[in-house]
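note to self — DONT lose this again. spent like an hour looking for the file last time. sequence + predicted structure for the chain T wanted, 174 res
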Amino acid sequence: MIKTKEVIREYLNELNQHHIESVLDLGCGSGRISLKFAEKGIKTVGIDCTEKKISNKNFSFVKKDLREFDFNEKYDLIIASLILHFFNYRKAVELINKMKDNTNKGGFNFLICMSNEDDLSKEKKENFYPDINSLKKIYSDWKIIKECQDFTEMENHDNLGEHKHNLIFLIIKK
C-alpha cells in the first residue's frame, strides 16, 4: 500500500540528488510538489486552469487549460501529477510527447498517474489510465530512475465516498 505523502517525499529526495534549474508543473493545483523546488531558489512555472494564489518569488503561475498551453521553452524537470486521466489516450500521449520534447537533455519527467487498476478507470474507459508497461513503452528512449505502483490508503474526497486509488509514480531521465 502506498502512503502518498511518503512516496512523494521519497521521489522529491531522488530528484534533489540531481542538478535542476527549471521546473514546469502541469496542473499544479496548490503547487504542493513544485513549490518544494521554488523554495530552493529554482525557477518554477505552474500551469492550472483555475486561479491559484501561490506566493513565492521563484514561482510563476499561469492560468491556462493544458490543452491550450504552448511550451515556449525547455525545462530540467516537468511534473504531471494526477492530470493525465482527465484526457483521452491520444491527447494524454500528445501531452507526454510535448513534455518529452520540452525537457532538457539530462532532464526529468515526474509522473503520478491513476492506473488501469484504479476503480475510476472502469467508469471512464475513454480516459488515460495506463498500466506501468505502457508508460515505460512511451518512455522507452529514456532511462527509468524510479518507479512504483500500488493502491493508496482509503480516502474520502470529491464526494466519491470512501475509496482508494491505484497510482503509478515514475521518474524518467532524458
